[in-house]
Write a structure and sequence with these properties.
Blueprint lengths: L11 E11 L2 E4 L2 E4 L2 E2 L2 H7 L6 E12 L1 E6 L1 E2 L2 E2 L7 H11 L5 E9 L3 H7 L14 E2 L2 E4 L24 H8 L5 E6 L6 H10 L3 E4 L6 H9 L4 E2 L32 E5 L7 H10 L4 E4 L11 E5 L2 E6 L2 E4 L12 H12 L3 H7 L2 H7 L16 E4 L5 E6 L2 E5 L6
Parallel strand pairs: 1-5, 6-9, 9-10, 9-11, 11-12, 12-13, 13-14, 14-15, 15-16
Antiparallel strand pairs: 1-2, 1-3, 3-4, 5-20, 7-8, 17-18, 18-19, 20-21, 21-22
Helix pairs in contact: 8-9
Catalytic activity: N-acetyl-D-glucosamine 6-phosphate + H2O = D-glucosamine 6-phosphate + acetate
Keywords: Carbohydrate metabolism, Hydrolase, Metal-binding
Cofactor: a divalent metal cation
Length: 409
């Protein structure tokens, strides 16, 4: 049956012999794509009287939405927190190389830096769609400098800032450019932080709580003012205590506003979080878990010395430390390895592991009607994976942008 060209002249692709992640279940059905979007086959058959132009045998692959990394500091020798003259070229290197790890969209992340770095770097970051050139850019994630000295982690203390004098104006003076910003991590216990959270939220910027000594009531107040995310849960925050669980307590708080969900990032690299802690968090609040890499410039490179903004980082195996210390500083994990480790550590379903890297970050950013699922009319950003969740091929807008050398369809 010929395709109905009265609707579109674009070719229709039918991916067969696959299991699709849809409605939280792997389902044995075909995937239909046209003009970069997921197509509803019933409308094609019954409304358009059409059929596929090109059939692709997926060789029993799992088809899942492309991964979305909302916290990645760099990789492959590129550090997003360095004031380079050509930031875009570095971002392009990372966006191209993470395709092989299933990432189709990401948020370049800057750690605490002097204002001059933000003033130079942020104007060079452009939000753009992905394609053969690399994964899409969803906007920058600014982690600091408005964080706690006590929980600064790998962030340089002498560049930390507060809101005490001018609140949101202090933030504007530090960053100067907010057009490309998607997430800001801050410590909610800081004076006047509520004003800042409200204004950032009003501008459509996601506020994340992290690098903080906040107690639970301070964290709950921040959520009431608009915060929706927790930066790398358990890391760089007060440890759980039964009388005041701190930010961790948000996972089971009964003070979250109606129809509001708090999401939380986790670095599932086998280093930052014990498997038992992963299991505790997942079982407490499974629908809020967002896998992040927190990857640094050393991701994809041999062990040795690398940078994270103003700091020198030593990479030893999967461990990353500020040089001369045992302070953890980001990771060298890839997103696909985080998904596999999460699956193994928690014993969750394959569907759950895949959604933690796709659906949940999309929901966090409010883009689940475009990305993060294989629902009809969504962007055709998806992965072909084998049964062990190794990435076989990566597609953006229905176009293959990476595949294993040994895998052809």
């Amino acid at each position: 049956m010929p395709s109905n060209k009265s609707v579109s002249d674009a070719p229709i692709f039918q991916f067969t012999n696959c299991r699709i992640l849809r409605s939280h279940q792997l389902q044995r059905e075909d995937l239909w794509v046209r003009e970069g979007k997921i197509l509803n086959p019933e409308k094609l058959f019954f409304d358009e009287k059409g059929s596929a132009d090109i059939h692709l045998d997926c060789k029993d692959s799992i088809i899942a939405p492309g991964f979305i990394d909302v916290q990645i500091n760099g990789g492959f020798g590129v550090d997003f927190s360095l004031a380079a003259d050509d930031v875009q070229s570095g971002i392009s290197v990372v966006s191209q190389k993470i395709l092989s790890h299933g990432v189709t969209s990401f948020c370049p992340t800057l750690v605490t830096s002097p204002p001059s770095v933000y003033h130079k770097v942020l104007p060079q970051i452009s939000i753009r769609n992905g394609g053969p050139h690399g994964a899409g850019i969803l906007g920058a994630h600014l982690e600091g400098p408005f964080i706690s000295k006590e929980k600064k982690g790998a962030h340089p203390e002498h560049y930390l800032s507060t809101f005490e004098s001018g609140a949101f104006q202090d933030l504007l003076a530090t960053y100067r450019h907010l057009d490309c910003v998607r997430i800001v991590t801050l410590a909610p216990e800081m004076k006047r932080s509520s004003e800042v959270i409200q204004e950032l939220t009003r501008r459509g910027i996601c506020v994340s709580l992290g690098h903080s000594v906040a107690n639970l009531s301070q964290a709950e107040e921040a959520v009431r003012h608009g915060a929706t995310f927790i930066t790398h849960l358990f890391n760089a925050m007060l440890p759980f205590h039964h009388r005041d669980p701190g930010i961790v307590g948000l996972l089971t708080s009964d003070q979250i506003p109606a129809r509001r969900r708090v999401f939380y990032g986790m670095i599932s690299d086998g280093i930052h979080t014990n498997p038992a802690a992963l299991r505790i968090a997942h079982r407490a609040h499974p629908k809020g878990l967002v896998l992040v890499t927190d990857a640094i410039a050393g991701m994809g490179l041999a062990p040795g010395k690398h940078t994270l903004g103003q700091q020198v980082i030593e990479v030893d195996g999967l461990n990353t430390y500020i040089a001369g210390t045992k302070t953890l500083s980001g990771s060298v994990a890839t997103m696909d390895s985080c998904v596999r480790h999460f699956l193994e550590a928690t014993g969750c379903t394959v569907e759950t592991a895949l959604e933690a890297a796709s659906l949940h970050p999309a929901q966090l950013l409010g883009i689940e009607h475009q990305k993060g699922t294989l629902n009809y009319d969504n962007d055709a950003d998806f992965l072909l994976l084998d049964n062990s969740l190794q990435v076989r091929a990566t597609y953006i807008a229905g176009e293959r942008v990476w595949s294993q050398d040994t895998f052809t369809i």
